[in-house]
């Protein structure tokens, strides 16, 4: 009934042939591994200096998102990333398990605008289960602030390189991921909802998360196939948590290369190219010419 | 590790009585029963209690646009299931069923028309098509609507009705949030107004993308507008939710919408806003399309899928 | 000791000669007269249609500031103004006596940005005792939001005509008054603090408000002399409250004329001219060449 | 009509013990007493309890700038009292007294210098000059500092210490809020960073104008930063104020500053920020001024008033 393109057929065949099921669940576990390098680990490894900015100038400072000015290979950059807590329960709670509130996105927007004003490239690191679903967060405009963060990134004329380093969960992740280049580590995941959330809705059973993950493929390979990311960044064997230093070096090489490419564009071109890139995202078909609505309507 | 199922609203997340789903012509609030034609004439608003029933895309367009003025675009786009997604049921089958049930190609209908004589581009979602979920086709068609507005130098009105992103397209669905926000940004560059109308429900990835970015954002009474659904919030936080959690009047109080507009006043309100904005709108850069004589609903449905996609 | 300019001497002489003391206190009373036309009265009288916008997209809608889109002589404009409540105690409290919170200024900023995006001129109406000095307002960034509102107005490329129609009190008033042209009604007042506040600080007695008002001259005539406003708008005899219709018509004529002047400029020129205009504001002298710091320091 | 005395902080509005005013060398918190030279060497921070005493403009510049690097501009500007303002005392007399007491022409000192080797424009307020109140001269000199930054292509650092606008200049004082905000906007157009440092107190019209608009905003420990003073808030609202109302660490928690920086770390922090920003700074469009040999404080004071205003 639907006329699909060769591209869609190619994608489906590729996904069927891959037999990547076990890799998928491994990636989910590795992406969430509590020893995996977090945003501040990359900040420490990539920047010769970094000054963290705090606060949204309106309500609070949200520790679930870090933002600051760094020196990256001698160049000033603005860095924004989700931040999970490590080591202690207190720290995890303080970071709210990496789930930002509107204040976090407002801080991110402030950092984005500062970068644009001063001409600094933006590097983002994405690692969150999602935006925080709390009453206060909703009341203070979680939805609108995510939309505003996406818009703020869309409007930047400076280069934007986003790297998914762990869990890229839903709109809360996308709000920091609107890049000229979007990189993704080999074992990171990126999806519209967590496997558990997907399972609980579609299978009516959160325990079916593995099944959901197989079905919706949150992996880097899949995101690359679908044109959502620009490159997969290799990890040390066994996963990024096995060797932070090497993981950071691999990310460094990938970001550097991407930044060089994007720096070559004129500011306004950069913004329009980013828009054109996201405009292309999506895969769809067209109705077969012989499938008419009147025919369908008659069946009702 | 606190793993949270976040962010996506869906059909089943509506906390209101489900009677309406069982009998679409019975008011879920006061149990008043209506004939089908009666409900259409009432704009699907309960005469007894004011409950606003869900309205499908074509019926919404008929409620808002001057008769015969609406010309649909990109009607032939169809979701293509690139992930070959299967849960308890195959996505491909869900799509076929939805198309059979609604007579629509996907959860949004876009085109150009006039409201109170003022030309505008329109993008109207349909909650009946897989819960109004946003996948690649919804995103593309919203972008086409923005293109139409820019090409004709007219505003864009989007009427949202959506449980959020379409899980079966996973990451591609998520990307539609960025794609639609950029479609609005394109309007901003062109200095064209964008009016967002949020109806029940406008949640998840839709309220967290284009629907939140209206130059003017209107909402229908009692529409749920939240990023996370009430059940997800409740389960995650164990907080007691306010009774009006996420509802449009709470959103008005909390500063997130400009007005809550009863459906009976929506067409007039949009007409008024289009007139207010009119002085600012640049002259059209392409001639307006010829106005077709008003086709009947049957004619329009019949001709719908034969019309090719047009991008302004 | 200070070498003052001829301009300063002229101003001082003028103020001394005027003998305007009784007029000053009359203006204070008239500016606060509860029957005086308020912002929404001008909205009703000047615009053939008006649609009010609500909310700051972050926390609340502040009824102490109204913002909306209006049709002014056939042209779309954005209108923002302080709004005092009339008639009932409830309404006065609801409008918080015209004292805005950060949410009000954030709504104003949203309206200013909308105007700039769509190319609509901005008309503001200033009528507030000042921004609200509450704990919550302070905690949510009253100061920063006033600064941001001033900055937002400074950055507009569309025409901005501000009219002081009653009390122009402090930063809370200025936040809406950064105009290409600033008009002021004959009996309006505009000052850095209320006469009562000034008296309570400098005279240690709020009851000396009349004395304070005489000393610091919050009147339209004084503001015009000092180059702070561009024109004084006449009022019906006895004050604007005596004849709303006529008061509104006089304001209409003044705004129309000002708008026509400003519309003649190119957008970027308009912004730079606004900046240059405010850059000139202030009156100062220079040190006499023979007054040296060493001499002064020696006296300590 | 609720008439409220709003918005202006002043000298007498400091709710802390007033001992410091009686004996400027005794810590108001822990009563430790210091010799004058000792306090200077300690950067005016109490060794016992960490209390940060108020610092005058010249001493602050000496604390921050590389020795001998600071060159003052616009030093000859003086407030002119156009309103011929008299309250319990004439404004003209207050100005003379303040100048005699501080050796300063007004409540701000501006110029260019280097911090940790990085060139920057500086604007440093002095609370000792009429409570650091902002009148025409403060506004003009802040604008001159912005001009200097733009002309040299260097950042601007403003160190605020102010009770707010200067009432004796009434509406002209109010206008300095707009004038200084536009001075910051001019920096933004030139893509130059602005670092705001708020010290005790930074209130009223100063925190509601340029001081709130730092690309990075720092605060000293326990500095009061509020638009309305605690007493005004208390009197107006009858609310119970939090103990840390308006204090810098409350402002950090509430998202209004980037960091609370102890005075001992301020110069190093500013040096670090200037280095971080440095890659972004356009090449100077005019040659940097020749570096004078470091004059003694006495020399600097002596030569101060003879130096003409320079606007870059
Ligand atoms: Zn009913
Ligand atoms: Zn002490």
Describe it:
The complex is a heterotetramer, with 2 copies of chain A (300 residues) and 2 copies of chain B (312 residues). Chain A is an alpha/beta fold. Chain A has one domain (34-191, 216-274): 2-enoyl-CoA Hydratase, Chain A, domain 1 (Alpha-Beta Complex). Chain A is 47% helix and 19% strand. Chain A contains 14 helices and 10 strands. In chain A, the strands form 2 sheets. In chain A, strands 2, 3, 4, 5, 6, 7, 8 and 9 form an 8-stranded mixed β-sheet that branches. In chain A, strand 6, helix 8 (170-174) and strand 7 form a beta-alpha-beta unit. In chain A, 60% of the residues are buried. Mean pLDDT of chain A is 93; it is low at 291-300. Chain B has 312 residues and is α/β, with parallel strands linked by helices. In chain B, a hairpin with a 2-residue loop joins strand 3 (108-115) and strand 4 (118-125). Residues 1-20 and 280-312 of chain B have low confidence and may be disordered. In chain B, strands 1-3-4-5-6-7-8 form a 7-stranded mixed β-sheet, with helices on both faces. Strand 10 (284-287) of chain A pairs antiparallel with strand 2 of chain B. One zinc ion (ZN) binds at residues 27, 29-30, 32, 46, 48-49, 51 of chain B.
What's this, in brief?
The complex is a heterotetramer, with 2 copies of chain A (300 residues) and 2 copies of chain B (312 residues). With 300 residues, chain A is α/β, with parallel strands linked by helices. Helices cover 47% and strands 19% of the residues of chain A.
Low-confidence stretches of chain B: 1-20, 280-312
N-to-C SSE string of chain A, H for helix and E for strand: EHHHEEEHHEHHEHEEHHHEHHEH
Q: What is the CATH domain class of chain A?
A: Alpha Beta
Q: Please indicate the percent range of residues of chain B in DSSP E strands (runs of 2 or more).
A: 5-15%
Strand order of the largest sheet of chain B: 1-3-4-5-6-7-8
CATH superfamily of chain A: 2-enoyl-CoA Hydratase, Chain A, domain 1
Oligomer class: heterotetramer
CATH architecture of chain A: Alpha-Beta Complex
- Low-pLDDT residue spans of chain A: 291-300
The overall strand count of chain B is 8
What is the third-level CATH name, the topology of chain A? 2-enoyl-CoA Hydratase, Chain A, domain 1
The value of Rg of chain B in angstroms is 19 Å
Major beta-sheet overview of chain B = 7 strands, mixed
Largest sheet of chain A: 8 strands, mixed
Shape of chain B: globular
Structural class of chain A: alpha/beta
Q: Give the structural class of chain B.
A: alpha/beta
Compressed to H and E, one letter per element, the order of chain B equals HHHEEHEEHEHEHEHHEHH
